[in-house]
Amino acid sequence: MTRILGIDPGLLHTGWAVIDTAGSSRTYVASGVILPKTSGTLPERLAIIFNRVSELVETFSPDECSIEITFVNMNPKTTLILGHARAAAIVAISTRDIPVYEYEPNKIKKALTGAGHADKSAIDKMVKILLPAAHPKTPDEADAIAIALAHSNMSALERLVK
Questions:
Q1: From CA 70, how far away is CA 39, in angstroms rounded?
Q2: What span, in angstroms and rounded, lies between the C-alpha atoms of 118 and 108?
Q3: 17, 18, 143, 156: least surrounded by Cβ within 10 Å?
Q4: 103 vs 159: CA distance, rounded Å
Q5: Residue 162 has pLDDT above 80, yes or no
Q6: CB of 29 within 8 A of CB of 18?
Q7: What is the predicted pLDDT for the residue at 155?
């Protein structure tokens, strides 16, 4: 069995999900959203993301982590700030010697639906099929579940190829 922590990074909302995988079997464990105070400074918000991800690692003991790669937004400042949120999560995980796998949004979509430009409803449908016990309350939480599932699918395929 492999336990995967999926993270959808964001400075306002960082979605997270934990799933267990064994062969082609996937089991939902938990998911949620980290919500730093919007009134906090950038360093305060990053510390909250770092501390909460650290707590998730302590609570759930993941074997691997998958995280979405930041795409370049129209506003470079937004891209940079989102990169800070990703970094806070990655450091919290990698300092505990847990491998971190990074995926572009299109690869996540393709791993779940077979189409790299699938829309949100197609992804949500696949999450419900693959993990019927998961009932995400926010888009960020749903995306984190999708990121964990995509990593599960891609790593299973990689093992088959080897």
A1: 23
A2: 10
A3: 156
A4: 17
A5: no
A6: yes
A7: 75
Which of 60, 56, 71 has the alpha carbon at shortest distance from 105? 71
Is pTM beyond 0.85? Reply is yes
Q: Which residue has the tokens 């450091």?
A: 91
| Residue 142: domain span | 2-161
User: What type of residue is 127?
Assistant: V
Helix boundaries (H) for 63-138: 76-94, 105-113, 120-130
Residue 100: both structure tokens together: 């971190």
Instruction: Give the number of domains in the chain.
Output: 1
pLDDT tens by residue, 90-132: 999 999 999 999 998 889 888 888 877 888 888 888 888 889 9
**Rounded CA gap, 82 and 27, in Å?**
29
* Rounded Cα–Cα distance for residues 54 and 61 (Å): 10
Q: Which residues are catalytic?
A: 8, 68, 140
Pairing verdict, β 2-8 and 100-103 = unpaired
CATH code at position 128: 3.30.420.10
- Which whole-number Å values give the CA distances from 80 to 51, 71, 74, in the listed order? 20, 10, 11
